[in-house]
Amino acid sequence: MRFFAEPQDIGKSRIKLSAEDSDHIRSLRLRPDEHFVVCDGAGIDYVCRLGAYKDDRIAEIIEKHQSRGEPTIDCSLYIAYAKGARLDYAVQKSVELGTYEIVLYKSKRCIAVPNNIPKKIQRLQKIALETAKQCNRGIIPKVSSAGEFDIMLDIAAARADLALFCYEREEDLHLKSVLEEQFSPNLAGKTTDAKTVSIITGPEGGFEPVEVELAKSKNFNVISLGKRILRSETAPVVALTAVMYQTLNL
User: Fold this and answer.
1) DSSP state of 8
2) 44-49 β-sheet, strand order
3) Hey, what's the torsion of the CAs at 148, 176, 236, 41, to 10 degrees?
4) What per-residue confidence (pLDDT) applies to 25?
5) Does the structural domain 74-246 have CATH classification 3.40.50.620?
């Protein structure tokens, strides 16, 4: 069992649980000596028990250590708005796989953009939280919106050592070759210095040529994910899986 706590609620010997988490623990009927994990959301896990405290919102700290579920590389996913439950799926699976953050944006061929973006972000953040609890994550990946396409490109480029732009019509440069060049061990047995990766995937209708040219002008690696065209919710999961595999984070 894994829960998350705010930093201000974590003391030297005990942690104040949220009312929701306390209710969950109560429903599980844990004995005072049974262990569970509370994470600070910054990569530190606290092994806890309810102990002798009469207040069931107080957890007694037994030990702490680095979260074991966090990858050694920060991958940010930039996903175009999509209709239906496609974003739900993409957020859930990318958090499982180890994404650092998820940033949504508008593209020219987006079929559906929410009328109430803050409400949509709030819903997806809840999915990220619940998935992080289930998947042994040490952080809760943030879900946010970058707004328009050009703004998103600037943000993605500024945050990454390696910037990947997944384009369904690219024929020459494949994701596999870029990752092998970037992360294969060198003669000293070490990998290259890239510690942050931005991955951009497109909407249901694909990218406009002008969007691809703009990405190239900002020095993105415009890459193919293979011979088949992937759905908008599948492409980010495939690209992220490839990065995690190549960097030994699966």
Assistant:
1) G
2) 2-4, 36-39, 44-49, 58-66, 14-16
3) -100
4) 84
5) no
DSSP string, 20-76: HHHHHHHHHT--TT--EEEE-SSSEEEEEE-TT-SSTTEEEEEEEEE-TT--SSEEE
**Nearest by Cα to 78 from 242, 198, 207:** 198
pLDDT for position 191: 56
58-66/44-49 β-pairing = antiparallel
The correct CATH number of 2-66 out of 3.30.565.10, 2.60.40.1820, 2.40.240.20, 1.10.260.40 is 2.40.240.20
Q: Which amino acid is at 94?
A: S
* pLDDT of the residue at 33: 82
pLDDT at 50: 85
Among candidate residues 195, 167, 179, the one with its CA nearest the CA of residue 242: 179
- 80-98: b (≥16 Cβ within 10 Å) or e: bbbeeebbebbbbbbbbbb
Q: Write out residues in the chain with pLDDT < 70, as ranges.
A: 52-54, 185-193
- 65 vs 72: CA distance, rounded Å: 16
Report the sign of the C-alpha dihedral through residues 210, 149, 199, 90, in that order: negative
Domain borders along the chain are: 2-66, 74-246
